[in-house]
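Subject: Sanity check before I submit

Could someone independently write out the C-alpha cells for this chain? I want to compare against mine line by line before I put it in a report. The sequence has 235 residues.
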Amino acid sequence: MADHTVKAFDNEIAQLRGLIAEMGGLAEIAIRDAIEALVRHDEELAQKVIAADRRLDALEADVDRLAVRIIALRAPMANDLRDVIAALKISGVVERIGDYAKNIAKRVGRIERLAKFEPLTLIPAMASIAESMVHDVLNAYGARDATLAVEVIKRDEKVDNFYDSIFRNLLSHMIENPATISSAAQLLFVVRNIERIGDHATNVAEMVYFAATGNYLIDREESQSENEGSIDEAE
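---
Independent answer below. Compare away.
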C-alpha cells in the first residue's frame, strides 16, 4: 500500500486492517475451542466460547465506526476505497463466523456422550479445513493476495464433501439407533454450521480478490469460460 500525503490516513487504514486481523484471530479460536468442547463434552469451555463472542461484536462495531470516519473525512478513491469497503463487508462476515462457532458451543450441552460415534470423529477434520480457510483468507486480506484468496475458494469443496458424508452418516445412524436421534440431530446442526463457516470464508475470499484486483471473481470465471468454452459445453 502506497503512503499517503496525510499520514493519519495511513494510520487509519493500518488500524482498520489490525481490527480485521484481531477479529479473524478470535474467530479462529472460537471455531477451535467450540469443536474441542464438542469432542470433549466440555460445557465450561463451550460457555467461554459463547461469552467471548461479545468481543467479536464489539470489534465489528469498531470497524464500522472507523470505516465511516475514513470515508467521511478522507474521501478515499480507487484502491483505498475498495480497501475500506472490503473491511466493512469482511468484518460483518467474520462476526457471522463467530456466531456459527457460538452456535456450535451452545449445542455441546444438548449432545450426549457418544462412544465410538463415527460422525463425531469426522467433524474435527471438517472443522480443521474450515478453520484453515478462515486463517488463510484473513492472511490473504492482510497481504492483498488474490492468488491465496482463489486457493481458499477451491478448498471449500472439501468442506462440502465432508458435509455430505457426515450428513448421510448421521441419517443412517439415526435410523439404526433411534435412541440417539436427539444427539444426532444436534450434530446435524453442528456440521451445517461448519459448512456455513466454509461458505463465509469463501465470501471473504471473493471480497479480498476484488479489493486486490479491482475485478470480481465472476469476471475471472467468465473470462476463463470464454477461453475454455468448447470444453465446458462438452462437459
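---
OP: Matches mine. For the report I'm noting this point. The chain has a mean pLDDT of 87.
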